[in-house]
Structures are given as structure tokens and as C-alpha cells.
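Supplementary Methods S3. Complex input for the 2-oxoadipic acid-bound model.
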Amino acid sequence: MPSAAYVSPDEIRKDFSRAMSDMYRDEVPLYGALMELVAETNTRVLDSDSGLAKQLQRTGEMERLAMERHGAIRLGTAHELATIGRLFAVMGMQPVGYYDLTPAGVPVHSTAFRAVHEQALQASPFRVFTSLLRLELIENLELRAFAESALAKRSIFTPGALALIEQAERDGGLNAADAQAFIREALETFRWHHTATVTGAQYQQLSDQHRLIADVVAFKGPHINHLTPRTLDIDQVQAAMPGKGITPKAVIEGPPRRQCPILLRQTSFKALDEPIAFTDAKGSHSARFGEIEQRGVALTPKGRALYDQLLNAARDELGAFPNEGNAARYVELMAQHFQAFPDNHAQMREQELAYFRYFVTEQGLAARGQAGQPQTLEALMAAGHVAVEPLVYEDFLPVSAAGIFQSNLGDAAQSHYTAHSNQAQFEQALGRRTIDELKLYAETQQRSMDECIQALRA
Ligand code: OOG
Ligand code: NI
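Predicted complex, serialized as C-alpha cells:
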């Protein structure tokens, strides 16, 4: 069959993301409420900030804003991780970045599956933060063996999904009917189950070890635990949440509020307690929650080092995990420390702290072919022939992710692990290397520069 008959992976991802959102909204009505609040806020922000509206139009983010979301799942075995990697590949998603959450007391390590090229991200920026449980961190050997045997018994993919993954790998794609079938079958892996695979007592034992371990081991599959819409003003949404009957966590994770947002700011509301039938008794489990995010400019290695340094300094000075009691002090300390991070795009660009994208302007196109045109990018920018816009951060932050996990596991779940970060072990489980996100941003920036030069030379 000619490859033209195949649906592009970007289309499959876009449809899958919509199907997942519909499923989650049906199951978790508060997600729908949050989406509405975010949409209202985004409209208000765009109406009041024409500069931002223009920027988002130029970069294409305006078109993808309403469909933008990320979710998260937690897996139990290497085989599950490798297979989910193949499932996501059918929709053009690659594992980007490695996040070790163990230093923050969460016994997992993770990657984010997402599209990697700016054009694919534009078609659908859907991302899934995917964690693998580190069973070797369960000290009680009997319990570890029980967890391993429970996980060995389950199969989190439908036979139909597995067959279509193999077919897509073999043929190099899926036709329209198969793509729709694939979306339906793949969705099953992410569905919530009201029944557990273990007894009430076994669940309790797992949960006493770590609530996250129970969340992974006691169920048939890795239910999607949140879907996160993107807001243009996270402080406004955070402030409006209680009015909608939603209680947000005490602090917004990530950098402080700024004129020029950097990286990623996130906040969430607590997981719902949901009724569960254990094999021998009724009980409940909480895993599913809501989250919102605000995305800013991607940082270079130099910018990221500065971010990490300032974040650590503020946290060291706070001397504790941010919580209800010290939230005001934390916000104050973050604002103080982050004064050292330039808050305008020109300075960030000059100091090579962030990545940018370059766009040919109307003026540039009009002047094309005339004699004595500026030759360098800097000169083209000075002449108004090329405009520069921040390149949006597409990834996650380990300290923030740990904060999001913790807010949903409860403070009682804080553990201390001495295990080392183990990217090699993660990649072995995954069956491939994870992609370095910084390389992707540098490539996108370079492509935009090359395109400008090309377009103006003609
Ligand atoms: C994932 C938490 C991390 C984020 O946005 O940083 C996350 C989880 O709870 O499984 O989603
Ligand atoms: Ni999240």
C-alpha cells in the first residue's frame, strides 16, 4: 500500500489527545470546570495584552493554545515502559528528557513522551509525563516480591492495541480506519478501573510502603492521573479556583511571576478520593487530580544552570518543603533570588540565557532583492526585517514534578531514598536512549535562523 494512504502520526496524536480529554472530562467533571476557567482566563489575558496576542500569533502558539495539554501515567515494569514507547511512537511521540524523582522522595524515574519537531508540536503539542516505579527501592523483600508478581500478571495493553502497534511498525503507518481503531484500543490502557487486583490488606501494605507503589501495583492499568491545560496567567487561575469549588495546592511550582515567563509554572488540586472494590472488600483510592500550567521561554544550559542555582538558594533559605505555613515566605524568597535573572527578552538573548525563534517580517519581505540589504541576523533585526520571539519550553522540571507528586500523595508520603539516579537503567528498560531536550531547542532556533536568511536572500 502506498504510504500516502497512511494517516500522519501528528493526526493520530491530535485525535488521541482529544479522545483522551473527552474520556477524562466524562470521568472527572472538575477537569471540565478547570478547562472552562482556563479558557475564560486566556481570553481575558489576550484581550488585555495585545503584545502577547501578537507574539502568540507570530509563533503559532495561538492556534495550539486551546488544544494544548499534558497528562501523566505511572508504570510498573520495564516491559510496560518499552511497549508504551512503541505505542507513543505510532503517534509521533518520542521520549524526551530524563527526570529522577528519588531525591525528592518519590520512588520513580521518568521521561516525557512528546513530538520533537516544531512543526509536529504545532500540529499537536500533546505530552505524557511517564514514570517507571523503582521497585528496587522497596526494602521489604517479601513486599517487593509480591509487587513484582502482581505486576507480572497484568497486561496493560489490549490485544488489539498490540496488534496495531506491530502493524504500524511493520508497514510504516496506519490507514484511516486502523488509526481510529488504534486510538480506541490505546485509550483503554489509560482508563480508570473501579476494581483493584489485590485484597484490601495487600493494598494497605503497599500503600504503607508508599502510596505511589499502591497506585501502580494494585490496579489493572496505568490510569491517566491528570490532564493539564495551558494558561496564559497561572496566578489568575490559582486565585479563581476556590470560587469554582477547587482548592489549589499552597504554592505554584517553578519560577516566580515575571514580565517574561521562563520555563514552566504549575499548580494542581488534590486528588479525589474514589470508591474502589478490592478483591475482598470495598474501599477507596485517590490518584486522579487536576493541574494547570503556564509555559515560558526555554532556557539554554547557561540559563538553566542559573535557574537551578536561584531555585536551590531560595529553597535552602526557606529550609523546608514549601507548604501552607511558609507559602508567603517562599514567594518572597523566590522573588528576591530571581532578581538575578534578567527579566527582558533582549537581555536574555544577549546573555544567551534563553532560546528564541526568528521570523521574517513583512518589511523584510518587501525589502527583499533590493541592493545594500543587511547581511547578518543582528543587522536584519536592527532593520526590522527579522523579528525575534521566545521559543516556548515544551518539557518538565524535576523539582516541580516532585512538588506535584507530593501535593497528591500527602506529606505523610515523604520518604528519603539514598539510591542514585540511574538513567542507564531507565534507558535499558525503555529499550532506547532518551532525547536531550536542549539539543531540540538549539536545533529549532538554528532552523529558524536558517529559514530567515534563506527567505531574505532569494
Ligand atoms: C506526575 C507528576 C509530574 C508534572 O506536570 O510535572 C507532572 C504524576 O503525578 O504522575 O505531571
Ligand atoms: Ni503534570
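The chain has 20 helices and eleven strands. The pocket of 2-oxoadipic acid (ligand 1) is lined by residues 72, 74, 129, 131, 225, 266, 291, 396, 400-401, 404-405 (CB under 6 Å).
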